[in-house]
Write a structure and sequence with these properties.
Blueprint: E1 2-7, H1 12-24, E2 28-31, H2 43-56, E3 59-64, H3 68-74, E4 82-84, H4 88-98, E5 102-106, H5 112-123, H6 131-140
Parallel strand pairs: 1-2, 1-3, 3-5, 4-5
Helix pairs in contact: 1-5, 2-3, 4-5
C-alpha cells in the first residue's frame, strides 16, 4: 500500500519511526517532509499531504507535536478527511464510519508502540459503506 506522510519538527521522530515500521511491512512510503527536527511550520506539511492523498486516492499520515494543528491544516483541503486519533478504536472508527483517508498523530503525545497499533488499525480498516455514514460524509463535502 502507498502511504503519504508528512510532519513538522514535533512529529519528526515519530514519523521517522513509523516510516521504518511501515516500510518493514512492505508499504511504499512517500515522505513529503520535514527531514529533521529543526523548527518548521506544520501547515504546509498538513496541506501538502492532504492534497496528495486527495489527488492520488491513497492514505496519509500527518504528525506534529500534538496532532491538532496539522490535522486542522489537512482538513482545509477539499475532499480531505483527517482524523486525530489517540487509540486503536478511534483509528478503526475513523476509517469505518468517516472514511478518513488521513491519520493525524501527536509526536509528543503517544508512545511509538501505541502509534504502531493506531497506524495498523487505521490502514487495515476499510470504510463500511453503510448508507447512513455515506450520507453524513456527503454532508461534510458541503
Amino acid at each position: 500500500m502507498k502511504i503519504t506522510m508528512g510532519s513538522d519538527h514535533g512529529g519528526f521522530e515519530l514519523k521517522s519511526h513509523l516510516k521504518r515500521f511501515l516500510q518493514d511491512q512492505g508499504h511504499e512510503i512517500e515522505d513529503l517532509g520535514c527531514q529533521n527536527n529543526s523548527s518548521i511550520d506544520y501547515p504546509k506539511f498538513g496541506r501538502s499531504v492532504a492534497e496528495r492523498v486527495v489527488r492520488n486516492r491513497n492514505l496519509g499520515i500527518v504528525l506534529c507535536g500534538t496532532g491538532i494543528g496539522i490535522s486542522i491544516a489537512a482538513n482545509k483541503i477539499i475532499g480531505a478527511r483527517c482524523a486525530l486519533c489517540t487509540s486503536e478504536e478511534m483509528a478503526t472508527l475513523a476509517r469505518k464510519h468517516n472514511d478518513a483517508q488521513i491519520l493525524a498523530l501527536g509526536g509528543r503525545m503517544i508512545s511509538q508502540e501505541l502509534a504502531e497499533k493506531i497506524v495498523t488499525a487505521f490502514i487495515s480498516t476499510d470504510f463500511s459503506g453503510d448508507p447512513r455514514h455515506s450520507r453524513r460524509i456527503a454532508q461534510l463535502e458541503g
